[in-house]
Amino acid sequence: TVNFRGTLLTLLCLLLALCLLVSCNGETGGPAPGSGSDAASGSGSGEEQNEPEPETVISIFADGAAGVSLVRASFVETSTLNIISELREELYNLSGTAFRIGTDDKEYDADAYEIYIGEASCPESDAILQTLKYNDYSVAVSGNKIIIAAHNDTALQKAVNYFLYMGIVTDKSEDGTVTAIRFSSANQKEWADTYDVGNMSIAGNEIYQYRIVYPEAVGNSYDKGAAHSIAQAIGGQTGYYLEVVSDQTEASPYEILVGNTNRSDTEGTVEPLHGSAHIEGDRLVLTTGGDFSVGLLGRNFFRMFPPDDDGNVIIAENASVDCSFLTD
Question: With pLDDT > 70 as the criterion, what percentage of the chain qualifies?
Fold first, then answer.
């Protein structure tokens, strides 16, 4: 009997201790430290949890009518125009409705629902284009605009393909007729290419600071064409597509000069089928031996300035290059 009473007393003491422990936890008001409940609820003392961006859906076609118009740059190459026409034609094939197309030199309307294509300019598209390197593309929603942004035809074709075949969502009737087309910010895509040249500099200045200058002269298309081909070569290797301007534009310290510009007198100093380069201040001066040779500058630019073992192109302040454009 004594042992039984002792055991019962022990059990009662343990039960009382357990009740006191539960009571103490209840008074502290919450789970034990490290339970993770604060993080799950977002109500702890840590950083505030950011709410996800609300989804934006733009109606492209509904109720038998187009919900957007298309906008392209005021001047585009024929190849670019063909890609834009393909986009418009495919939307017509889906909806049976012709989509109006305009150019970016019209008056800007922030409230209008529009698709800006390629390098077409508006505040929304400009902000996106500035983040893209030469071979990159973006398909995005910004305000009331769908932006299909790219700097060249190859990237633009990829962007249009994504938009048409993976980005848009369609509703169909029982007989398969498309009744609605829409694009959601949930389907946005930004694609970044990889580039062979890691860093490129001229006289200690990063390449993105530069622009390419050609001589403005009646009937002179060779130097202008060469300037654009150099821009494409640099863009394709580094991702930075440099602005191309004539020498009638106000001078800048950071310029790549092509031919006999009013910034430097270099005419007649290079033998035929050769290219020459040297540094004047912070400028890179490129000259060739005749009109045929200048047309070869773009494809030979990285023969004149090949990447080093680390994949960088460093054009030093004392750089002086003479390169034959004749191939073996």
Answer: 78
